[in-house]
Design goal:
alpha/beta, Rossmann fold, Hnrnp arginine n-methyltransferase1, 5 domains
Length: about 725
């Protein structure tokens, strides 16, 4: 039977009150009671008796491995249920007491570390995960979870920034020229791992205070300074804006706290505070000394498909031709590399702001206005659809040295992307048309709004990005529509667990028994209810729930599982397929496909080369935070070196497949995607999907290969955790 559950399981009242029971002499009594409780799925009773059993032993590790395995699984189940009930205190008691009994239980260490990561206790999470990996170097879940924690501590954009040699050289030249003029007492704001401080420290007579608020980067900066044997740099761990007085002499402010739209890292606030609080001399310099911000209009269908549903006419079956769906997102812009997109620039380029970082009155105005704005007019240079605005900047390091993020400039720096603001309602334009745009700076962020747009006749909804990309993936939609035809008029109960329950909608309209959809994002609910209304589907036939409890019954059900997360990882439910009655599980099978490739981006975003950081010794320290996997790849420029090879998704352990190299050269990664057999002859590949992203597995070192070489590709798997290597 399928039963809606509107509340979390009633677990809190049955949580063991640790330490409240007196131990009994007969340890087997506790063990027997624990096993009986396990059979009844009474986790609390089972856990309590297991603890009493282990405490009655001289050494808990003397218990059998079978008993310890059952206890480990029980602790993990307890953790999951307590997490659902948000009973954090008892969850931590459960894990900590289990680890007091078995301090080297790498499964429990991993689960506790993963939970601490989920609640943003990053440093604590890392300690537990490092212990788990130390105990068992081959336990893949702990290894991958630790890698994810390190990525959170040092995001990949740090690698891109440090590997951008053009940016680094420009800063070096600017710092040298200003120090040569006599400005030698330096405050480095947002020092990161300390590169700009190192550049300054090598110049005679300089003294530097490096300020970094990120604890991990602060510690890394200390290590980098020490490794490069620098003695004239003092490192502070704080926000620069928290300082109420100068930490030392200062007549030169150096900073690089800019995002792709310039303002996003609170750069203006930091520069204003440093200019008014941290500098100690009237005659001072700032690097950079100013910036110019630009906007232009463009057309880029592939980019827009991540934001707006563009093919509503393809779903005439659901009467959605006049619906407008756009992404619900609190962020005013997205970071995109336009060089990697098929972009058509629709308007001329307009300079919006010219900011002088010495002009404190200008900065004050931009900071204090509720919304500092400028109205600009863009002249269209092409005929077509204006779909988005792109924003980029020039950063003036000195009067004579500047860098740019302009994608049309061959000398652009590559560590920054461009800021993209997609229009909810694109407009048709012709050459010579003038469009009016409001560019607004608010809360250290920026937005661009098209004015004077004509009202449309569409019904507009804001939904999650995943619903937009699902519906824009025409091959995926076609597969689901074909799947629905397989079950027309079969009067079956359906559970559609996909982010967009398209199959459920189609079958509900065709009079199936009942459809259940466990909704993933509440933002989508209003749109889903509209679909039911416009198609005259009774709400008792299509039931939207927050959770669904599945119990044994005789009815025939279709279970449509969302087996892959949009970031390209495996979804847990793909291992929980229902065996209730005569259930039909969809998809029927999942095949993992990998291919030997090479891509310059792999090295750029994952490992720092000391050559790119001007031969300072940084790589060894920061590369501790590189990994061997890059999930969530929407696109990747790469060269193929082999045909694809397929792995069946079955069983844990290590498997291998042999391939023959079809293109010689240097390979540095394996690209991964999936072939999904939904049902019988309905097969879908995620290789060119708009909805599902791809994953790359990096090699520790690039490998030279020759045409015709034989190479063995290995897959290591533990549940949803996978690792590929050669």
């Amino acid at each position: 039977m399928l039963r809606q559950t509107n509340k979390k399981p009633e677990m809190a009242s049955r949580v063991p009150r640790l330490g409240e029971h007196q131990k009994k002499n007969n340890s087997l009594f506790y063990l027997k009671k624990a096993k009986q409780a396990c059979v009844k799925n009474d986790y609390a009773e089972a856990y309590e008796n297991f603890v009493l059993y282990f405490e009655s032993l001289n050494d808990p590790s003397n218990s059998t491995s079978a008993v310890q395995t059952v206890f480990t699984k029980l602790v993990c189940k307890m953790g999951a249920v307590l997490e659902e009930t948000s009973n954090i205190e008892e969850l931590l008691k459960c894990y900590i007491q289990a680890l007091n009994l078995f301090p080297d239980n790498y499964v429990i260490l991993n689960n506790l570390g993963a939970y601490m990561f989920k609640i943003s206790e990053i440093d604590i999470a890392r300690r537990y995960l490092e212990r788990a990996v130390k105990v068992n170097k081959n336990y893949l879940p702990a290894e991958i979870n630790l890698m994810h924690v390190k990525w959170h501590q040092i995001p990949r954009w740090h690698f891109r920034m440090l590997n951008d040699k053009s940016r680094n050289l420009a800063y070096e030249n600017a710092i040298k020229s200003v120090v040569k003029e006599g400005y030698k007492h330096v405050v480095d704001i947002g020092a990161g791992c300390g590169l700009l401080s190192l550049i300054t420290a090598q110049l005679p007579g300089t003294s530097i205070v490096a300020i970094e608020e990120n604890k991990q980067l602060y510690n890394m900066c200390l290590d980098v300074i020490k490794k490069n044997e620098v003695t004239n740099v003092k490192v502070l761990h704080c926000y620069s804006t928290d300082l109420e007085e100068p930490p030392d002499k200062c007549n030169l402010l150096v900073t690089e706290v800019f995002d792709c739209a310039l303002f996003g890292e609170r750069a203006l606030e930091s520069i204003y505070h440093a200019s008014t609080v941290l500098r100690t001399e009237e005659d001072y310099k700032i690097i950079p000394c100013g910036a110019k911000l630009y906007v232009t209009g463009l057309s880029c269908p592939d980019l827009v498909k991540q934001h707006k549903w563009t093919n509503a006419k393809s779903l005439k079956l659901l009467n959605l031709e006049n619906v407008c769906l756009t992404e619900y997102d609190l962020e005013p812009y997205e970071a995109e590399t336009l060089l990697e997109r098929d972009v058509k620039y629709m308007t001329d380029i307009h300079q919006v702001f010219d900011i002088d970082f010495y002009n404190l009155e200008q900065i004050t105005e931009m900071l204090n206005d509720d919304s500092h704005e400028k109205i600009v007019q863009l002249r269209c240079i092409e005929e077509g659809e204006l779909q988005a605005f792109a924003i980029w900047f020039d950063l003036n390091l000195t009067e004579n040295i500047s860098i740019t993020t302009n994608p049309l400039d061959e000398e652009q720096v590559t560590c920054w992307e461009q800021a993209i603001v997609c229009l909810d309602h694109p407009v048709r334009v012709v050459e010579g048309t003038v469009v009016t745009v409001r560019v607004t700076v608010r809360d250290c962020g920026i937005n661009a709004t098209l004015l004077e747009t004509a009202a449309g006749d569409h019904t507009c909804y804001k939904v999650s990005k995943e619903v937009v990309t699902f519906l824009n993936d025409q091959k995926l939609v076609d597969c689901v529509c074909a799947l629905a035809q397989k079950f027309w008029n079969t009067n079956l109960t359906v559970v559609d667990n996909n982010v967009c329950p398209l199959l459920g909608f189609l079958l509900a309209k065709n009079n199936c028994s009942t459809v259940y959809h466990p909704i993933k994002t509440e933002a989508d609910k209003t749109f889903f209810e509209y679909v039911l209304s416009v198609n005259h589907i009774p709400k008792e036939r299509f039931i939207i729930v927050s959770e669904l409890e599945i119990t044994a019954g005789q009815e025939t059900c279709i279970f449509f599982f969302d087996t892959i997360n949009v970031d390209g990882s495996l979804e847990n439910c793909c291992f929980k397929k229902s065996e209730i009655g005569t259930s039909i599980n969809i998809p029927q099978s999942l095949i993992i496909v990998v291919q030997l490739i090479s891509s310059p981006y792999i090295e750029f975003c994952n490992r720092v080369d000391d050559e790119n950081v001007l031969e300072f010794k940084i790589a060894e320290i920061i590369n501790e935070y590189s990994g061997y996997e890059h999930p969530n790849l929407e696109r990747l420029m790469y060269t193929e070196h082999s045909p694809p090879v397929k792995f069946q998704l079955e069983g844990d352990g290590v498997k291998s497949k042999d391939i023959i190299v079809t293109r010689g050269g240097v390979t540095n990664a394996l690209l991964l995607w999936y072939d999904i057999q939904f049902y019988e002859d309905i097969v879908y590949s995620t290789l060119n999907s708009i909805h599902f992203k791809k994953t790359c597995f990096f090699f520790a070192e690039p490998k030279e290969i020759q045409l015709g070489d034989g190479i063995s590709i290995k897959m290591q798997r533990n549940g949803t955790y996978m690792k590929f290597y050669i």
